[in-house]
Model the fold of this input.
Amino acid sequence: MGYHGGRPGQTRPGGRTARVRAAVLRAAGDALAEHGVDALDLADVARRAEVGKTTVYRRWGTVPALVADLLVDMAEQSSPRADTGTLLGDLTANARLVQSTLVDPRQGSLFKAVIAAATCDDRTAEALHGFYAARIGEWAPCVEKAVDRGELAPGTDAREVIRAVSAPLYYRLLASGDPLDEAAADRAAAAAAAGARAGVYVRSAD
Done:
């Protein structure tokens, strides 16, 4: 989905450019989790990362560009897709990964900050959409394999099934405030799997 492979600005594995990028993105994530996007400042990020301000301004230039690169890095670093051999097993693994990320003190706060900023900043929104496109693309083969195994009907929209797994979890995080525990993750996975088996996500013929 476009986020895998070589990273922007990386000259060689373990090179100085890669180390600087890692330090800056770690500092940016810390600052985002603490204060949100509105208070994110490139000079402060440079200070936290212990790199020169000129380096940060030259490499990223703006806060939205830094947030976008942070999301690219998060997509690259996310855990790989599960392959348990069953649709429910794979969707449960996906749901538990989402749930554990969202309740993590740092990651959960970071996602809340980025989602809030995306509502009023087009570049942040574009970066966020790209992050989720990459994650959905990573996990969609779980559903495609279930179709191949005969668990699901041909024509099942794999991306819609994956979206259905995480949507209730984000609702709890951002809207309802209901407990976001492992049981909620397992129910979300079971509901998505049941809907998929019932043909809810089969694409209609145009």
